[in-house]
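In the design runs reported in the main text, the only information available to the sequence generator was the tokenized backbone. The following block is the verbatim input for one such run; it is reproduced so that readers can re-run the procedure and compare outputs position by position.
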């Protein structure tokens, strides 16, 4: 049991790193951890809720590793930087909280995995919805036979993003940057959790054969999908369909439809609401924070909820998505632009993703005018 107070550093301290700073702050105040370093290539932002305090500030993560000597490094930089930063941090002796997607290809995954094994370090991947107790309750219900033999898992997500979303960083809306594939796009970025959650519910099995993929974009200034569906089967014989849009009229947070031979379940993965066969209404669950889980793993050997191995199948799906060409542009006739910082609404996209998820269909199988 390791009872020393862990020394934490964050690389990519602005951006999503700010979320990590907020998450760590109460633990730092309680003396459960020490924040020893913040690193960003841009000036590290001050935030009244999360003062920089005693943390040393760096613009070079190697320098940070040497000078701050952290036990755990949170990596919240753009995906193409993950492999080199993760490698150097593990070689320095650090455990990692590595933001999703861990890496962008299976070849990079193998290299990262080998480093993890070689250095003996722990890698928690930031798929935070895997810490959901609704997810655990669903798996328990499936194992006790309440839905019979699992046949299909489908996810529908319908959100909106304004034009400014695609100006948030250099890699936003891009297929590649400086010759490297970058992981933006509805499937690769905001709805990455939808895919990882579906793969996990379907039993964490690898996929069997190719995935079918349909990607569309509703803005000519982006090179990635804002509306997309993929379908595949896993080696456990479960069909998986993930259908998402950032151009939906009606919001669907992220509805997972689980179908078995004896019944159906519904899980809203971002909110941890679950409905099992026979339930009159959905039940609200809580979550285990993945950073807390990493601390307990180090202190007491508790199993990692989102250890790197669990991201392997996801990485294969991501690789397939990123290597797809720039998606076709939807005809303007089906689009509406709403607001001062406009969102683009694709006619019927919300209903389409819902049907695709429930029925396990691709857009091209739904007789949609735009697909
Ligand atoms: N788990 C989630 O729900 C969730 C949500 C949002 C983002 N993310 C992930 O977090 C990561 C960061 O996303 P983001 O949108 O904040 O990206 P971003 O482009 O805003 O970058 C984050 C920060 O990293 C800094 N940075 C870039 N390269 C660096 C380097 N080599 N060394 C130090 N700092 C560097 C940038 O200056 C920026 O401040 C991505 O992997 C993304 O997928 C996860």
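Verbatim output:
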């Amino acid at each position: 049991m390791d009872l020393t107070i862990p020394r934490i550093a964050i690389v990519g301290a602005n951006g999503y790193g700010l979320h990590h700073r907020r998450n760590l702050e109460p633990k730092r105040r309680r003396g459960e951890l020490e924040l020893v370093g913040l690193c960003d290539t841009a000036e590290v932002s001050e935030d009244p809720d999360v003062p920089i305090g005693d943390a040393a500030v760096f613009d070079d993560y190697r320098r940070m590793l040497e000078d701050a000597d952290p036990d755990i490094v949170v990596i919240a930089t753009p995906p193409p930087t993950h492999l080199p930063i993760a490698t150097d941090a593990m070689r320095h002796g650090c455990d990692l909280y590595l933001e999703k997607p861990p890496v962008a290809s299976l070849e990079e995954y193998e290299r990262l995995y080998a480093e993890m094994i070689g250095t003996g370090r722990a890698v928690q991947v930031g798929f935070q919805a895997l810490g959901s107790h609704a997810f655990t309750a669903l798996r328990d219900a499936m194992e006790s036979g309440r839905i019979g033999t699992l046949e299909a898992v489908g996810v529908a997500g319908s959100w909106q993003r304004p034009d400014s979303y695609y100006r948030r960083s250099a890699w936003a809306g891009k297929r590649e940057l400086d010759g490297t594939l970058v992981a933006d796009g509805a499937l690769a970025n905001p709805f990455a959790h939808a895919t990882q959650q579906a793969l996990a519910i379907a039993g964490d099995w690898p996929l069997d054969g190719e995935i079918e993929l349909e990607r569309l974009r509703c803005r000519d200034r982006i090179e990635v999908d804002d509306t997309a569906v993929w379908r595949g089967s896993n080696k456990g014989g479960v069909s998986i369909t993930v259908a998402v849009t950032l151009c939906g009229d009606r919001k669907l947070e992220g509805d997972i439809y689980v179908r078995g031979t004896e019944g159906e379940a519904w899980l809203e993965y971002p909110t941890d609401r679950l409905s099992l066969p026979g339930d009159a209404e959905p039940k609200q669950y809580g979550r285990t924070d993945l950073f807390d889980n990493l601390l307990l793993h180090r202190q007491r050997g508790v199993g990692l909820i989102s250890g790197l191995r669990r991201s392997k199948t996801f990485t294969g799906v991501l690789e397939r998505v990123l290597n797809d060409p720039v998606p076709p542009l939807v005809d303007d006739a089906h689009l509406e632009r709403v607001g001062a910082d406009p969102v683009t609404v694709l006619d019927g996209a919300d209903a389409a993703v819902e049907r695709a998820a429930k029925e396990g269909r691709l857009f091209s199988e739904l007789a949609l005018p735009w697909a």
